[in-house]
């Protein structure tokens, strides 16, 4: 058991430093490079490519911000500094708020985000954690869906649980990789449809935060056809101290 915990700790540390050393550099390199190009174009009063380069800077900035948010939250969760504060929240409102964050970046790829939501779906949950789960699942949908594709967010409720589905008609996940995406010691990442780079950190956070609520998260995927990510939250969850 001790050896297993040590291996997990080392895998966590390796993942963290790998992201800082490699993944965080990429978006900032793009931002710096295309900012210099914009300055050069502006000085020459050449405005033909300004919109394109500005879009690339926005995408890179969004990616850097997402990565920093995930790193911060993951660091806090691994060191026990993330509080668990469940309260009654309106799931539909939270989904709508989170989906709106992706309007611009999804619009650039002409991806439609559809929300199939019933009216008034209260759930007892930590708003910040579930917002992070939604943000990462929608972000992955945008990243791995082809231009012109569609992402559908749905909510299904029964007496025992609330189930949220985030589906896309994107690239899908190879069958032999599906079980790896929620495990830190199984390093599986792939490029998005516009060569967006992923770290796998977002799904690790999703798993940790959903399980903190005594829920479950899983994926059904077919390579070349798309993926459906599911997560559940109990309909009734008593307030607990940090687990």
UniProtKB/TrEMBL annotation:
<dbReference type="GO" id="GO:0000155">
    <property type="term" value="F:phosphorelay sensor kinase activity"/>
</dbReference>
<dbReference type="InterPro" id="IPR050736">
    <property type="entry name" value="Sensor_HK_Regulatory"/>
</dbReference>
<keyword id="KW-0597">Phosphoprotein</keyword>
<dbReference type="Pfam" id="PF00512">
    <property type="entry name" value="HisKA"/>
</dbReference>
<protein>
    <recommendedName>
        <fullName>histidine kinase</fullName>
        <ecNumber>2.7.13.3</ecNumber>
    </recommendedName>
</protein>
<dbReference type="InterPro" id="IPR004358">
    <property type="entry name" value="Sig_transdc_His_kin-like_C"/>
</dbReference>
<dbReference type="InterPro" id="IPR003661">
    <property type="entry name" value="HisK_dim/P_dom"/>
</dbReference>
<feature type="domain" description="Histidine kinase">
    <location>
        <begin position="19"/>
        <end position="237"/>
    </location>
</feature>
<dbReference type="InterPro" id="IPR003594">
    <property type="entry name" value="HATPase_dom"/>
</dbReference>
<keyword id="KW-0808">Transferase</keyword>
<dbReference type="InterPro" id="IPR005467">
    <property type="entry name" value="His_kinase_dom"/>
</dbReference>
<dbReference type="Pfam" id="PF02518">
    <property type="entry name" value="HATPase_c"/>
</dbReference>
<keyword id="KW-0418">Kinase</keyword>
<dbReference type="InterPro" id="IPR036097">
    <property type="entry name" value="HisK_dim/P_sf"/>
</dbReference>
<keyword id="KW-0902">Two-component regulatory system</keyword>
<dbReference type="InterPro" id="IPR036890">
    <property type="entry name" value="HATPase_C_sf"/>
</dbReference>
């Amino acid at each position: 058991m001790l050896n297993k915990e040590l291996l997990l700790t080392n895998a966590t540390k390796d993942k963290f430093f790998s992201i800082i050393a490699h993944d965080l550099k990429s978006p900032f390199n793009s931002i710096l490079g295309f900012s210099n190009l914009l300055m050069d174009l502006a000085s020459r009063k050449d405005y033909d490519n300004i919109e394109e380069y500005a879009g690339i800077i926005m995408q890179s900035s969004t990616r850097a911000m997402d990565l920093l948010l995930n790193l911060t939250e993951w660091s806090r969760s691994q060191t026990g500094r993330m509080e668990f504060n469940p309260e009654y929240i309106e799931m539909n409102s939270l989904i709508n708020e989170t989906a709106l964050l992706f309007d611009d970046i999804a619009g650039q790829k002409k991806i439609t985000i559809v929300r199939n939501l019933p009216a008034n779906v209260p759930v007892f949950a930590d708003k910040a954690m579930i917002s992070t789960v939604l943000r990462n699942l929608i972000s992955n949908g945008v990243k791995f869906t082809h231009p012109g594709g569609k992402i559908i967010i749905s909510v299904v409720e029964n007496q025992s649980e609330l189930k949220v589905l985030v589906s896309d008609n994107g690239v899908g996940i190879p069958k032999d990789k599906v079980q790896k995406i929620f495990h830190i010691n199984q390093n599986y990442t792939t490029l998005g449809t516009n060569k967006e780079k992923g770290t796998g950190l977002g799904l690790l956070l999703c798993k940790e935060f959903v399980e903190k609520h005594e829920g479950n998260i899983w994926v059904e995927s077919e390579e070349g056809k798309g993926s459906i990510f599911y997560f559940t939250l109990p309909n009734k969850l008593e307030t607990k101290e940090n687990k």
